[in-house]
Amino acid sequence: MADYEKKEENVLNNIADTVVRLDGELDKLNSLNEDTTKKHEFKKWYAEKKAIHEIKHILHEVGKYAKYDDDEMKKIDDYFTNFEG
Q1: Average pLDDT rounded to a whole number, residues 9-17
Q2: For the purposes of burial, counting CB atoms within 10 Å of the CB of 58, is it exposed (0-12), middle (13-18) or buried (19 or more)?
Q3: Which residues contact 29 (CB under 8 A, 6 or more apart)?
């Protein structure tokens, strides 16, 4: 039982770390919005998408999320690389 509780705590810590990184990234991007001539909505969206992908990965590793697509972020990166270029 102690192993299960430790594993559960590690999963929760990993999710919390991901959300903290997302908050930091969004705070940084929000501070850039002080210059009203530039918008960083895409960067915010990308940071959120990346965090959600990481959380899905964490949950998939412990068998709590079956729809995980390992290539999801690669597909998003490829799309926007081709879109910008």
Answers
A1: 92
A2: buried
A3: 40, 43, 44, 47
